[in-house]
Amino acid sequence: MNLLKKFFAIAVTGVLLQSCSLFNDEQTVDHRYKYINAQESEALTLPSGADAPLYSEEFRVPQLGDSADTQAIGENLDIVSPALILPLVTGSRVAEGTREAVVEFDQVDDSQALDTTIWNSLINYLDERGIGVVSFDKETQKLMTDWMVIEAEDESPWYSWTKTDRTVGQRFEFKLELKPHGRSGALHAKLVDYLETVGDDVIADISTSQVRRNEIEVLNNVISHYEKQLRIEDARRLRKIKQGVDMELGFNANGDAAYILDANYEVAWPRLLLVLRKMGFNVKDLDKSTGIIFVNYAGTDEGWWSSLFSSSDDLQLEKEDYRLFVSQQGQKTSVTWNDADNNPLAPTVISDIYEPISQVMATEDLDI
User: Fold this and answer.
1) In a domain, 30, yes or no
2) pLDDT at position 17 over 80
3) 203 and 329 within one domain
4) pTM to 2 decimals?
5) Engineered SS bond to 345: which of 118, 288, 332, 349, CB 3.0-4.6 Å?
């Protein structure tokens, strides 16, 4: 029995000792490494008159630079893989040649200014998580957050049966650098304050590498939230495009006869392209930024047309080229028709083709 007890004690001790190494901090090297105690060997001493052997420089360790951290050895050496910025948003990319937490954006949506879109997304991200804003200056393009507090319980090794309360507080400054044209910019995240409590201990300093990881982590969270908002907005816009849009006869800002769509430009533009294809128009060229569409009327698909109307007749429109001019008009959108020579179509022609186009424009769930 005594022999069995001794064996059990030795076995448990071995397991505990091995467990200690397993639960080492994963951000540092294994404490069993002995390289930190290594000493540089002395150069070979040669007898007088002997020829010196040839030395290879292949494995020579280079001299440390002036800015090198000479304390980054042993437990002070961080071995965690570097944090990576994730440019998930369409038109975003990693800024090359910098170690700062920064991501670059290009404007892909002309509905509002790029800086407005970025700041709205960032403020919405902070608001959803209950994080206050200490200061925000649109002129200098800077925002300072209030404390982001994270409370967690660190599990101790299984053999101690204890838990350690841990609270981390951080404050960040976000800065947006816009290009002079305003259609691209770089968003920076900088950790300005850090305070951590582990039990009764207070930690106010962290390593440079940990600072960078925290900055990249919060920046990735902001990017992820931005991308999520874009997906939600795209889904909402797609539903609006598929829904019917009311249309009426009216005049554009210049007083020309036009169709007035009860939708904003971002919805009316793709909806109009969809309706034109359904009505037998071939889109030859277009420019969304100027609102011009070059089309050719080739006639409708009888099968689809007859399923919607009692007659399979084409529009009362010559099968030739036309130009459409689309523009925002308040909360609505105007569509003006010109012929191939860029002359406005006669009001009678606009009126003749209005009814069938308005019916298709109002049809629900058109295939995109």
Assistant:
1) no
2) no
3) no
4) 0.65
5) 349
